[in-house]
């Protein structure tokens, strides 16, 4: 930990006295007594600076520091021996990957994983703040876990991830959910050994949330979910400041990992037999823009990925604004760079896009799509769309519908706008009734389903390559995997094909998946 981190840590740390050993009774007392409002308010004024959009906009690039020296302190290496952990993950792939890191750290501390809450000695909720319903789910789960905590006072219950970067959430947990032992933010994951130890021995709630924009901690241990596909972070944070989005506040500023670290990680995964990597970032196209010492962009990184002997490379998620010609050129080389591109558009109306601060127009987006399709004629495009942004008119919504048709998206994640505290859009008055928003979402989904169904239908009687991931959840005799274009395929085939790329002839198309029969051949070349 450096001096700066030490200072940041002091911002929100509550009563950490590892020598002050607590008992089960202390825990019960804490859960039953609620901390007073004044105490919390005073605490926040003195110690905690919540993520702030104005400050966030003035972020300085040079503040990012790289750390390669993570290790579990000796006195914590065996703290979990004979104990079990459970991490429940909400939200995006970034969170899923953070869970793999936390699982890695806990495993190195001697803990074993369990999927049974009754068996767990530590339960962490890795939360998502992107929409209100994601937050409601987490508060529901915190409530459900209270009887278990009362029954097992030594259980450590922790809340981490994006919600814990929000002052209002931390406040609410401190006031109303005293049975939560530990709250820590997205910049504090590497501090997990210390935080667990503090939670074990402290009588009070342990809260550590750094509002700092974040460093890059390399060499964190990971327990990956499976041995076929892997997530690889290439950058953290977001500096785009779309007016509806909480991410720039919860995940800090854009900061890129060094290319050599990413390349080494992917090479290592390939050597271990992984068949697919997905490069992760909130806005991968901004990769490298923060390097002060060299010109190296996302296109350059993808070009280096192209040279690595791993069959499939995906990336998520892209911002149309930063999707440059060099990247299109590199992706057109094909090979292990797949021709499925997820390109969130959010709205088809230039006026709404302006209010969203997306920094491109409908025409810019369509022009980019034309470029991609020209360079990669078979490209499949998918997207994210928000309906019911404040004051969206019927005509503006119709522009979204026509754009969906014009581009021919084969799938889309669609959402009703959800106001997030602290974001500029949340301060706007909104004249669109909830019922109208729901209808718009319904109409949009009908259109997306229709387009997805049609694209699926075009695969009937064709042969596709599938990376076989395992048995289907519904029927163990059926295997399941994904095509290069990320279509789910269920088919009958030998179990020995799990973990391999095989050819499957499609016999039947459904709206969101394909059924088929394996053609006796393994294809595993780039
Ligand atoms: N309300 C609704 N959807 C949102 N998204 C991000 N913020 C919000 C919000 N406040 C959607 C965007 C983004 C996806 C990950 O979630 O479409 O691309
Ligand atoms: Fe949020 Fe994505 Fe916009 Fe960044 S680019 S602010 S993560 S929607």
Please tell me how large the radius of gyration is. Answer: 24 Å
Mean pLDDT: 89
Write down the oligomeric state: single chain
Strand percent estimate: 15-25%
Q: Uncertain spans, ≥5 residues at pLDDT below 50? A: 1-21, 41-48
Please tally the β strands and state the result: 21
Task: Give the count of helical stretches.
Answer: 17
Q: Looking at the structure, what is the overall shape?
A: globular
Sheet/helix structural class: alpha/beta
What small molecules accompany the polymer chains? 5'-deoxyadenosine, iron/sulfur cluster
Topology, pairings included?
Blueprint (H helix, E strand, L loop, with lengths): L2 H8 L13 H9 L4 H11 L5 H5 L8 E2 L16 E6 L3 H16 L3 E2 L8 E6 L4 H13 L1 H6 L4 E6 L5 H10 L5 E3 L7 H10 L4 E3 L7 E2 L11 E5 L1 E2 L10 H4 L4 E2 L2 H13 L4 E5 L17 H9 L5 E5 L8 H7 L8 E3 L7 H6 L6 H14 L4 E8 L6 H14 L3 E6 L17 H24 L5 E9 L6 E6 L4 E5 L8 E9 L3 E10 L4
Parallel strand pairs: 1-8, 2-3, 2-4, 4-5, 5-6, 6-7, 9-12, 12-13, 14-15, 15-16, 19-21
Antiparallel strand pairs: 10-11, 17-18, 17-20, 18-19, 20-21
The protein binds 5'-deoxyadenosine and iron/sulfur cluster.
